[in-house]
Amino acid sequence: MISTHGYRGRALDLITKYGIKVGDRIVVRNERSSFVGILMPRSELDDDAHIVLKLDDGYNLGVSIESLQIEKVPQEEVPPQPPKAPTSRPGLPRVSIISTGGTIASRVDYRTGAVSPALSAEDLYQSVPELGELAEIRTEILFSLLSENIVPENWTAMARSIERHIKEGAHGVVVTHGTDTMGYTAAALSFALRNLPVPVILVGSQRSSDRPSSDAYLNLKGAVLAAAKAPFAEVGVLMHSTSSDGELVIHRGTRVRKMHTSRRDAFVSINSSPLARVADGKIEMFGKYRERGGDLELKADFDEDVVLIKSFPGIPTDIFDPIIHRGFHGIVLEGTGLGHVPERIFPAIKRAIQSGIAVVMTSQCIYGRVNMNVYSTGRELLSLGVIPGGDMLPETALVKLMWVLAQTRDLEEVRRLFLTNVAGELSERSEYAEVWHP
């Protein structure tokens, strides 16, 4: 049966006519030019007027089917040989790599168009053979999830898996993760893994490993280096520092935000400098950090009955009614400026707090901190019982409130725990740089 993955209509008729399937190496010719490449799969939502080739230089090319002639390039059938892990060098630190999915942990099978997890030790040693010079690698495929599908119970499972690997002797842990919600997971693990004795490095890639501009190779290599040799024992997110190769940066797990949809340097430390820079095989630390060592304490429960609400002009006065009726336990408000919301929703906020819901205020501004003592509206919100979020990112505040509410529902104790700096998420003075590059 011909594999047609995503092709339909006229494009499907064309490849069926020539007996071509996804993964075949073909020559395509029209009146103006010709190209050689591998027939790639397409999305079912794409048009039926093009086919897609993977060229020899690694780039994908869409080719119009108009007046197109196709010829299959004969290829010798060579049975695939599974890659072999190199013999472990004595004395290397042990690093565990836990895969949860995302672009960095997948590979494309050009014969079928299927995308599958690629995080066995053999896969890693084949794609990044230098890992065998850095550490003894242990691997676990925990999930194969798009990061937008990760939920708090997955954070709990990750924390427990990390705990197990540390107890089994891991000198550091790498967690591969999709980039879209990696900041949420990094914050969650920062709170869940108390008194962490080794580095835990979350790593992803903005561009898949089959693209020439992929950041997967360098990011994974840098993450293993950091897990094996970094002096700190915190949760960090490692990604490119600039759009060029050569320099990576490790952001503190409670201070990082994805600031661009596709750039390789999309991640930025907010209101704080990064933890470290990785370049030329060396790790350069910035500022204070928690040193290696300690007895890990796991506090990995999260209360999912927490919502994040963004204030906006014209916000409905009854927006909290279904939340109160449903019995949610916490609300994080993403207010404007120093921590403001329209006065028209003050009565609703009061009802929520009186019903036992913890309400936290953060700011929509990327940089700076909430200060609710400057204006009378802020002071009134404080008098109602709203908890100021300091210079926490709204997403970090959301995760922290979930974590706090899993430990206590007493609003006074919630306030105390929330205003306590647990994992570098709060500071007395916020650092500012539009984009922090060391």
Could you characterize what this model shows?
The chain has helices at 9-17, 121-127, 131-134, 152-167, 182-192, 216-229, 321-326, 346-354, 376-384, 394-405, 411-418; strands at residues 25-29, 34-39, 50-55, 60-64, 69-72, 94-99, 106-108, 115-117, 136-141, 172-176, 193-194, 200-203, 235-240, 247-252, 256-258, 267-269, 276-279, 282-285, 297-298, 306-310, 330-335, 358-363, 387-388. With 438 residues, it is α/β, with parallel strands linked by helices. The protein folds into three domains: 9-72, SH3 type barrels; 94-298, Rossmann fold (3-Layer(aba) Sandwich); 306-418, Rossmann fold. Helix 5 (182-192) packs parallel to helix 10 (394-405). The protein is globular, with a radius of gyration of 25 Å.
CATH architectural category of the largest domain: 3-Layer(aba) Sandwich
Report the top-level CATH class of the largest domain: Alpha Beta
CATH-defined topology of the largest domain: Rossmann fold
End-to-end distance: 54 Å
Q: Residue-averaged pLDDT, rounded?
A: 87
CATH superfamily grouping of the largest domain? L-asparaginase, N-terminal domain
Question: Biggest β-sheet: count, sense, barrel?
Answer: 8 strands, mixed
Helix content: 10-25%
Structural class comes to alpha/beta
Strand content: 15-25%
Q: Nearest-angstrom radius of gyration? A: 25 Å
Oligomeric composition of the shown chains:
single chain
Number of domains: 3
What is the strand tally?
A: 23
What form results from the Cα inertia axes?
globular
Main β-sheet, spatial strand arrangement: 9-6-10-12-13-14-17-18
